[in-house]
Amino acid sequence: MKTTARVLLTLDCHRDCPYCVNKSSNIMSQARVIKSFEELTPYEEILISGGEPLLYPELIEALLKVVTHQKVYLYTTLFRYKLAKDIYPRLAGIDFTVHEDDTTSVNAMQGWQTLASHHEPKNNRLMLAPDIKRGLNIVPACWSTIIVKTWRYGDECIVPPHEDLLLYEA
Ligand code: SF4
Question: What pTM did the predictor assign?
Answer without folding.
Answer: 0.95
